[in-house]
Design the sequence.
């Protein structure tokens, strides 16, 4: 098959096939040089036999040569229009970019679907992506309410992750080609039909995961990898407690720890019998009702009084004292959410006695270099678990992107299990 220009990207492109090379214009032995620039960046392969049977004259695209065939019609919908650069795909919606924007801070009703400016770029080291799907994260709800501003220079459009197809490459970007199916970690802008992101924050879609589902992977995988496996350095055989086990973070964290630290003891909290059962199905050894049980007592009882070596917490102030109490000697508490408030009293004596530590971590405001290092680790250590089937995305539902307000209501109600996705219509 013919690959796409880009030289050895993650899809295995940039190969020579029976005398044809993937460089936008191809040579057939004994023939004049034939242009196929209209499909040189395509992810979908063009049958070599079709090209060999229908040589074209200089300046004629393969799409023109194959116009009698149904394949040509399919390719025409996906490639650049005549006269456009083969390194940039035209925008969807007839050249316009649309996004979910906010009329003002407030409830879900402030979200509206409208046309916006095409994001500038891509600049050096950046990739433009035509978005296919994104996901709703708790940070999106906070930003909508006016409590969580984007980092300086980031888009003020909601959305911290996306999946889609590469639309354009900035200078110096290697390893990707226009048309590649990817997902990406964003600082903002995911609720749009096009985004621009540093190349270091772009990932290939894992084998066995469809493109829409991949829109809910970058934020959760990067968060859990950078906290549980990097900062807290959970070791195999240790005890891990994650709060909110039925959330997007929780459902992934349970599976990731089971896959990457198979001897770990995994405990989690959730609010309903159905959610507790789902957590057990995903690999939790101990599922605790935060409505009916004392998670500190349950964890200590399950560990012979020792406690948890690593706790991943989304509650903040409300759980701080109890989390410290639940820590084992040399335990590590990592706070990634503030659903239970921002201020609480911390008993330093309890930490000193246990030689324990508390870490508060945010992913969105990290420098691009740190995000790139996290994404590289995710690709190297986590992506193979998706390929092996030991981690499977947990998706509660998929809604059209213009219905983001309804998606926010679902997440706000805590009635979901796993991720809520938004798909570009």
Sequence:
């Amino acid at each position: 098959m013919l690959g796409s220009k880009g030289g050895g990207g993650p899809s295995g492109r940039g190969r020579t096939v029976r005398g044809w090379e993937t460089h936008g214009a191809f040579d057939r032995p004994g023939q004049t040089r034939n242009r196929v620039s209209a499909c040189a960046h395509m992810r979908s392969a063009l049958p070599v036999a079709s090209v060999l049977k229908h040589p074209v004259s200089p300046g004629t695209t393969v799409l023109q040569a194959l116009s009698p065939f149904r394949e040509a019609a399919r390719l025409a919908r996906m490639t650049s229009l005549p006269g456009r650069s083969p390194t940039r795909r035209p925008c969807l919606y007839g050249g316009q970019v649309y996004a979910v924007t906010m009329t003002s801070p407030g409830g879900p009703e402030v979200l509206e679907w409208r046309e916006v400016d095409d994001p500038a770029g891509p600049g050096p080291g950046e990739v433009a992506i035509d978005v296919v799907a994104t996901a709703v994260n708790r940070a999106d709800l906070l930003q909508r309410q006016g409590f969580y501003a984007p980092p300086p220079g980031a888009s003020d459009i909601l959305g911290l992750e996306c999946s889609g197809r590469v639309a354009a490459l900035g200078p110096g970007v290697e390893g990707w080609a226009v048309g590649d199916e990817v997902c990406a970690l964003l600082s903002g802008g995911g609720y749009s039909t096009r985004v621009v992101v540093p190349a270091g924050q772009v990932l290939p879609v894992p084998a066995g995961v469809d493109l829409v589902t991949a829109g809910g992977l970058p934020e959760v995988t990067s968060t859990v990898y950078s906290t549980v496996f990097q900062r807290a350095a959970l070791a195999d055989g240790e005890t891990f407690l994650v709060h909110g086990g039925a959330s997007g973070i929780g459902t992934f964290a349970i599976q990731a720890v089971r896959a990457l630290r198979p001897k770990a003891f995994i405990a989690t909290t959730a609010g309903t019998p159905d959610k507790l059962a789902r957590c057990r199905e995903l690999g939790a050894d101990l599922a605790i009702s935060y409505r009916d049980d004392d998670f500190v007592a349950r964890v200590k009882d399950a560990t012979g009084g020792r406690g948890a070596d690593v706790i991943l917490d989304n509650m903040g102030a409300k759980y701080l004292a109890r989390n410290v109490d639940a820590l084992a000697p040399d335990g590590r508490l990592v706070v990634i959410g503030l659903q239970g408030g921002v201020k609480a009293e911390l008993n330093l004596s309890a930490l000193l006695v246990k030689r324990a530590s508390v870490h508060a971590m945010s992913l969105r405001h990290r420098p691009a270099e740190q995000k790139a290092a996290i994404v590289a680790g995710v690709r190297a250590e986590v992506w193979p678990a998706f390929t092996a089937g030991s981690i499977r995305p947990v998706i509660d539902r998929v809604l059209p992107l213009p219905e983001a307000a309804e998606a926010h209501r679902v997440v706000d109600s805590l009635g979901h299990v796993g991720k809520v996705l938004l798909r570009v219509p």
Notes: The first strand starts at residue 16 and ends at 17. Residues 1-86 have pLDDT under 50 and may be disordered.
